[in-house]
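quick one: iron/sulfur cluster bound model?
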Amino acid sequence: MKLLTFKGGIHPPYKKEYSEKKAIEIAKSPKVVYIPLQQHIGAPAKEIVKVGDLVKVGQKIGEQQGFVSCNVHSSVSGKVIAIKEHELAGGRGTCIVIENDFKEQIHESIKPKGNLEDLSKEEIVSIIKEAGIVGMGGATFPTHVKLSPPPDKKIDTVILNGAECEPYLTADHRLMLENPEDVVYGLKVLMKSLNVSKGYIGIEVNKPDAISAIEKEAQKYDDIEVVGLEVKYPQGAEKQLIYACTKREVPSGGLPMDAGAVVNNVGTAAQIAKTIKTGMPLIERITTVTGSCINEPKNLVTKVGTLVSEIIDQCGGFKEDKIVGKVIMGGPMMGLAQYTIDIPTNKGTSGILCLDDEESKTPKPQNCLRCGKCLTVCPAFLQPLYISAYSLKNDFESAERYRALDCIECGSCSFVCPARRPLLQSVRNAKREIISNRRKESAKK
Ligand code: SF4
Ligand code: SF4
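yep, here:
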């Protein structure tokens, strides 16, 4: 097997040992779910149910608004008891609150979609769109949009991301090990939807059991190649994965389709397979619950809309001898720290990471030492020290000249900086300001 990688990157402590050997379990169904209308990149869905309505599992309860948006479905059967604002992982937003009747009644619309051979490209994209499927690695970009490239973009490669390079997270690892059939079938669906004859599945070589499970399944097809990836962060980032698999570079400011590739997470592929085979939309996902403060780390299939506090309880709660410092939705590098655990999970909740107070401390930043380490590791070949310095001086024009918008927000620069400079935060802030200024400029025209 070839061992592929990209230029730059870091080797953080992986800490996968908490949960990598834990087989996937189904979480208990919650009494109440809080299903956000915004669980994806793009416009929020619009509710199509009202308080008092009875709903079933898989029933559409939120309709996508515009092309870059997603449908939302009920993860339980029961009664809509409120449609209201609630705390979410990234701020506040509207949720459809459903009281579970525990009857698990499946909605009448949920039916298998037929044989893949009989489905056209257009039908596949329409099924994925209707099912509200998003990038399940955490990015939550609507999958039907990725599968609808403009006619002038020639796509010849589909890549599945099985790197799971974020420390602590093991949901994708367990999925590949326990359900390789759906992962590979999902890739075949994606390849057909894009009329592509070459598929790759990239997996970091610290998961040899997953590689052999996926290889065994992929052997059935001569157009799928399983590639072993060097263990390095951010190996699973789209541009870095495309380079590792194809040696093609996505141009500055460009998208994967500019390199002829579409990248999806292995979890997304498995969900696509499930939707084609059973008709069930995206209403649940595997979430790794992990970290030093959790009594029983697990890989749990959780229904979208379950409160994080309930999931933590199902994992034995917090350890009594630990002081919880941070609860992060996602992994430690790209996840978001939360100030409450009374927030619901969503389609992108790959992990719930609970760190103690020692692990959560943020050291005081010192002056830049001009050591150049941040330049060496940046996988986007940026100069984080300069972008950060301009950002901190509110000189966003200069930050833009230094290609701040090409930052993939991986946090590698902050991780290696011996002066503990807040590089990621300041580069991220520069990106936000540049995009906001561009919007203001185009509104004036
Ligand atoms: S500048 Fe952006 S892409 Fe480069 S290392 Fe820092 S966070 Fe990652
Ligand atoms: S790694 Fe930190 S100290 Fe070194 S050059 Fe970059 S910002 Fe300066």
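The first helix runs from residue 121 to 130.
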